[in-house]
Sequence to fold (116 residues):
Amino acid sequence: QVQLVESGGGLVQPGGSLRLSCAASGFTFSRYAMKWYRQASGKERELVASISSIGGGTTYPSSVKGRFTISRDNAKNTVYLQMNSLKPEDTAVYYCNAKNGFIDYWGKGTLVTVSS
Fold:
């Protein structure tokens, strides 16, 4: 049974930091590219970070580049998203995604709220 379980969300003040985790099970984690998406209320889901299965290459959109860092630990079947210098516009539900070709797995999301 495939599972992606996100954790680490919560309420943080502007300028603060959070670290999200996504624990994977039920598939060969190391063979999948891992991604973090987010969806703010009333908006479309957007990709915020990705890391390849081999080599660990990372990509980010300009909206988070320099503030967010994605990493993975294949021994722990876990992917992380370190978020620094958070802004109110980063408020969203953050989802973990595993992708290999046409195969996509999704977590249920964790809510991040950036507010004073």
About this structure: The chain has a mean pLDDT of 96. The chain has no helices and eleven strands. The first strand starts at residue 3 and ends at 7. The two ends are 40 Å apart (CA to CA).
